[in-house]
Amino acid sequence: MSQNNKNMKQNIDELLYNLNHQDWKKRVKTIYELKNYNEPKVTEALIKSLYDENENVWLASANVLKNSKDPRIIDSLIKTLTTDKRDEIRWHSAYYLGEIGDPKGVNALIKSLSDPCIDVRTNAAKALGKMGEKNALDALITALDDENPTVRKEAISSINLLSPKKPVNALVKALNDKDKKVRSLAAILIGKTKSIEAFDDLIGTLDDKDHIVRVSAVYALEKIGGEQSIEPLLKALKDPYWEVRSDAANALGKIGDTNVIVPLLEVLNDDNAFVKKSALRALERFSIFKK
Fold it and tell me: What 3 state SS string does the chain have?
């Protein structure tokens, strides 16, 4: 054995010994130092550390092991997700299962959508979207009724990832959510799907009490485009909030129908400089100004 190999073996042995140190900070430091050694006995010791009673030690071990392909890591994360009493351990387990992406974790994640901890439910919803398992779709749709808006928002995002073209019913339902961020995201995703089926519901969102939701609705109408979007976008030109009017003017210019020229000319008298600039930019698309 060469001197370098001897030194490395000695370093590993010393570090493995320190994994049993009574000071958890020392154990955490040791775990991150062991990250540099790709040895079976190191992996074995780190997996064992996943059963450490100290949260910080567990978090360090899980973070180091998340890129490992060892199936025991998945089994350990599933166990902590479904049985551990500590909220932080469970939600991190959900997060790491999403990062690893092994389908073996899907059922545990679906079950965790009913976890009493908001952070666990949120990370479970996010993980299911990242993993791309379509058999999680029904559970995520059910999660749209979660009491917490952050969970509902992640559920919508994951539904869109799992079924990017036709998550229409779920998104329409979310347009009426109590939380403005959920309604806004639903409108944006409807625009990305370019769903005609949801068009009437989307138009109703132009009357939402929150201007951010109305801005999102304008974005969606721009993405859907076509003649059917013109009338609701003309309505949005009269919205009390300047950003809605500005985005509506931009959208009308991109649709390119000459019937919008006169309404856009009227917008040049708007009190807001940004709205007027957007209307001018939209009108320039019709080449009606002499150079």
Answer: CCHHHHHHHHHHHHHHHHCCCCCHHHHHHHHHHHCCCCCHHHHHHHHHHCCCCCHHHHHHHHHHHCCCCCHHHHHHHHHHHHHCCCHHHHHHHHHHHHHHCCHHHHHHHHHHCCCCCHHHHHHHHHHHHHHCCHHHHHHHHHHHHCCCHHHHHHHHHHHHHHCCCCCHHHHHHHCCCCCHHHHHHHHHHHHHHCCCCCHHHHHHHHHCCCHHHHHHHHHHHHHHCCHHHHHHHHHHCCCCCHHHHHHHHHHHHHHCCHHHHHHHHHHCCCCCHHHHHHHHHHHHCCCCCCC
Q: pLDDT (tens digit, 9 = 90+) per residue, 2-16?
A: 545 555 666 888 888
Fold of 164-291: Leucine-rich Repeat Variant (1.25.10)
Query: Does pTM surpass 0.70?
Result: yes
pLDDT tens digit sequence for 185-210: 999 988 888 878 888 899 999 999 99
